[in-house]
Amino acid sequence: MYRFAVKAFLVLSVLIAAVGCRTAPLYNVTNQSIVTSGGKSKSLEEVKTAIVEAGKARGWMMKDIEPGRLEGELRVRSHVAVVDIKYSTTSYSINYKDSKELHYDGTKIHPNYNGWIQNLQREIEKRL
User: Fold this and answer.
1) Beta bridge partners of 81
2) What is the pTM of this model?
3) Is residue 54 in a domain?
4) Are the C-beta atoms of 32 and 93 separated by less than 8 Å?
């Protein structure tokens, strides 16, 4: 009975560790075209405003770095995601910059990060 309990405990521990450390390929948004209804292009300021408002709606803190570039930071409990957002009147990109507690290994990251980026992208699209 004791041996069974020890084996069960070890198997359960391995399963919990495996679930807790799951990762997925890093998701970046690269040169996403800005398509507007009516064919009228947005100004650089309008694109920036759409990105900043989308970020706020999703809990991101946006910092203006230079014209055409923002830095976004999202904090969820002990997790931190930092992205570099480059934008123009025709496209934008959201690229990984840094993170904490998201198990980034150079190519893979906790899947919640990808969900946060996809949510931000959808929110930006709605506003553009």
Assistant:
1) 74, 99
2) 0.82
3) yes
4) yes
Q: Is residue 2 part of a domain?
A: no
Domain residue limits at 79: 23-127
Q: Do 24 and 114 meet the contact criterion of CB atoms below 8 Å apart?
A: yes
* Tens of pLDDT, residues 38-71: 778 899 999 999 999 999 999 999 999 999 999 9
* Number of domains observed in the structure of the chain: 1
Count of residues for the chain?
Answer: 128
Q: Which residues of 101-120 are buried (b: 16+ CB within 10 A; e: fewer)?
A: ebebeeeebbeebbebbebb
Round to whole Å and give the CA distance between 122 and 58: 10
Among 66, 72, 64, 55, smallest CA distance to 127 is for 55
Quick: pLDDT tens for 4-15. 544 544 444 443
**pLDDT of 86 higher than 80:** yes
